[in-house]
Design a protein that fits this description.
7-stranded mixed beta sheet; 20 helices; globular
Length: 780
Amino acid sequence: MSTTWIGRPVPRVEDDRLLRGNGRYVDDIDLPDAAEAAVLRSPHAHARIESVDVTAALDTPGVVAVWTGADVAHLAPLLNKEELRTPPRLAELLAPRVEATPMPLLATDKVLYVGQPVAVVLADNRYLAEDALERVDVRYAPLPVLVDPDRALADDAPRLHEDLPDNTAVAVAAQVGDPDAAFAAAHTVISEEFQAHRYVASPIETRAVAARVDPYSGELTVWSNTQTPHRVRESIATTLGLDTESVRVIATDVGGGFGQKGILYVEEMLIPYAAAELGRPVVWREDRNENLTAASHAREQLHRIELAADADGRLLAVRDRITVNFGAYNMTGLVVPYNSLCHLLGPYRIPNVDIDVVGVLTNTAFATPYRGAGRPEAVFAMERAMDRLAAQLDLEPAELRARNLVGPDDMPYTTGLVDRSGNPQSYDSGDFPELLRRARAKVSVPTEVREGKHIGVGYALYIEATGLGPFETARIDIAPSGRVKLAIGAPSQGQGHRTSMAQIAADALGVPLDIIDVVGGDTSATPFGVGTIASRALVNAGNATHRAGKLVREKALDAAARRLDIPVAELTLTDAVFTTKAADGPTLTLAELTGRAPLPGTPEPTDGRHGTELSETVHFRPPGFAVASGAHAAVVEVDVKTGELEILQYVVVHDAGVIVNPLIAEGQVTGGIAQGIGGALYEEMIYGPDGQPRTGTYMDYLVPTSSEIPDLDMDEIHSPSPMNDLGVKGLGEGGAIAPQAVLANAVEDALRPFGVVVRRGPLSPSRIRDLLRDAPAPTH
């Protein structure tokens, strides 16, 4: 009897190993005689490097080498080429400005942010390397510091990169319809400024890289907790002048990636180079202060947004001027700014659009995608603006949203914008009104309110274009034992690929789940791949797996038919057993097919067309984006005396098409919401005007624990995507997109009697008290 694995809540097969302490992280790689690296980082936000003296550091016991920018100046600077690439169609239609700012592996002439690598020490252990760092003598000449993006755009602002005309890293604009006429004719117009504040992915496992050159083969093997091993391999090969085939990158177990580990870093080039130069293994592990101050940051945007509506609350137009703080280097180009631009409209029908985005270079750590990648920022601005419009029109906020939602009968719906690939933006499927209806039905407001407490309700909706291309790879091999090996280019950082991808393969092949072994993120197992970023793994690697499984199943049926000497149409493959349609027909197991040969140890003869090797490699290229969506609602209680906020109820209704594994899906949504709540209420990366980070440890940078995350009231609908065979949509980022907006809306609703307007987060008790103190209405 056939077993359908897709849709079943199978417990994650990887959990047993991880919970028993048998994970294999970079720190678990045993490399005898490995040197350890420590990085000297700039204490200045902007300064000329006048001199670097490493003499004393080299004399430190146990030190193997000390390198400065001059020692590695012959190596190409770091450039995230794939992320900076503008699709030709998008370039043709919008002519965006994208400035490349290559980052030297070690700073030479000047430093641009606190934490920029200036020198690297290699020693017998990290303790000795740290001691030597203190003996590197660097003389700096401080330069003017720019922290505020608006100030950095001023005509008289000092330039961070002297080869650029100004501090603009990215600029792009898009228009639909006639927004000026729509605003002029509107019944109501609201104009607001909303700021998405800066915070950090802050994975429990910080970044780490280990490298070794095999003395026999000469192969360079790199272990990294990267999300994009194939891109790391290509960059290492290019930087070191090696053939790609001689570099192997293995993405180990990863204790959280969230986008921060999805880009290239200079350390991923320096450590392999050191291993090659020293002729011994080299390991580097980032400490928490380095992660908070020198790994990539995210989220900081300023939205100057306007909405126009008619007397009934129908949206007529939106205008938004978005400023994105890129930090010191342009690492990922249009990725975050354009995500914000093309997700700003969300699930709403808005016929006239005017959006302008500029990415600005400042003397802060560089910013890159973080779970949601520009969408939480855009949703914060739009959903806050919707609540301000509702207040102006004296409409209930959920009702205003309901009046403007794109309906299921409109699908596929085109917005008039173009997506990141340069094609017309299209929502392939979904039922946004149903999402909102279910969320509203679940909201339960307490009837009794305690003295000094105020109750508020907030709503926020979002869409997310998932399944980013250009492709992903899956290879399926059936071993002589009958076990199935599935190798995919997308590594896992907790998404449960070894379970969900195995479920897809089991269905496609017709075999049990427990005979499938999944390998992800090893460049020797799959020669091509992109990585696990941008809610793309299930759509791309999942569909590649599905297609590879179908092809191998066809080969297996053909081989079994020849072995049994019956027509292939008479055979089925279920639970790894070939059976005939006739009740008394012969049977054959998959292991018998793959392992049995005419003579022991010899292969079966073939005619050149029908071999016995059962394997297939598929590169899946998505034809377009699969659009996921969701509605969040929150009920909060705010203590106006202390500013303390309690989430009484958190509702989420999501639509990610076909769900492969409901348990994993629930975990992904829950994790995203937890990180979103962290950004909404707790986390903020703060810089002083001198460019010094003020939240460089967990003593200052507050992250939530499980105690701060409420139980979630979850529901889902299923709108299969027509963009892929499985009908799936990406899910990993969705939970993180709406929490900042929904909680800000709920807090403003709770504090409405005081005239409070929430324009930024995090909504800590002190900030809530500040809002009450500065509100136009008196507090009581």
